[in-house]
Amino acid sequence: MNLRVFETIEELIRGTARTIVEQVEGRASATIALSGGSTPKPLYELLGGTTWRDELSRCAITWVIVDERYVPLDDPQSNAAMIQRTLFADGLLPSHRFLRFRTEFNDPARTTAEFEQEWRLLGIEKLDVVLLGVGDDGHTASLFPDTPVLDVQDRIAAEVFVPKLDQWRITITKPVIRAATLRLVLAAGESKARILREVRDGADYPIAIVTRDVESWWLVDRTAAP
Question: pLDDT (tens digit, 9 = 90+) per residue, 60-98?
């Protein structure tokens, strides 16, 4: 486990921001996938601010959403809306693009198909960086334990009903995450320490499956460190 421990959540957020910027420095273009949730929200606010926004403007970035709850864009649970309010608070830079799941179709299968078509039209071959979170049950993206989406091998994205949440989700798939050049796993808080310890010790949680034997950096605060 490539573990990078920061003393505070503030240092973790700044360190992750710098890591993302370093990954695109000197590049003409890059594709970066973003997860939702409360932990990365201040990261997106920081990256959307003037200083970091100027740094990111030097690279043509395609931002891709990692997963989405099947809710309208104006729902407080929407990952895409949170990203738009933070990272894109001052608008999307002219050289940047944002690929999200269009839940306004009100049809999870159609949303997935449209996402895959747009992915291909944008010419995305693979992700350069994917930012992941990890749940207390070991899920990442919308790859939850014991759900059929974990077995999908031939799709860019897939819809999945998560019984424990009684909710439809859309997510990029395990092979797409594993094929990325780099995975950044962001974790903060004492509740994550057990999961990280068990992943380190070989547990087969979804977060372990998508990060094992491929370059993955675990960026955590001190309380989450195993």
Answer: 999 999 999 999 999 999 999 999 999 999 999 999 999
What tokens were used for 126?
Answer: 């693979």
Rama region for 55: left / alpha / beta (φ>0; ψ in -120 to 50; rest): alpha
pLDDT digits (tens, 9 = 90+) for 188-210: 999 999 999 999 999 999 999 99
Of residues 78, 87, 99, the one with CA closest to residue 41: 87
pTM given for the model: 0.96
Take residue 8 and report the two structure tokens written for it: 């505070």
Q: Residue 92 gets which letter from DSSP?
A: -
Complete domains list, the chain, with CATH: 2-224 (3.40.50.1360)
Please check whether residue 124 is in contact with residue 130, taking contact to mean a CB–CB distance below 8 angstroms. no
- The first and second tokens of residue 18, run together, are 């710098």
Q: Could you write out the three-class secondary structure of 114-179?
A: HHHHHHHHCCCCCCCEEEECCCCCCCECCECCCCHHHHCCCCCEEEEEECCCCEEEEEECHHHHHH
